[in-house]
Amino acid sequence: MQIKDKILIVEDDEGILRYLHTTLLANGYQAIVAADGRSALALAASHCPTCILLDLGLPDIDGGEVIRQIRQWSTTPIIVISARSTETDKAEALDTGADDYLTKPFGTVELLARIRTAIRHSNSMSDQNSIALTGTYEVGELFIDFRKHRVSLGSKDINLTPNEFRIVALLARHAGQVLTYKSMLHELWGPAASSDNKILRVHMANIRRKLEPNPDEPRYIFTEIGVGYRMADSEDHM
Ligand code: CA
Question: Are 159 and 210 contacting, i.e. CB atoms less than 8 angstroms apart?
Answer without folding.
Answer: yes
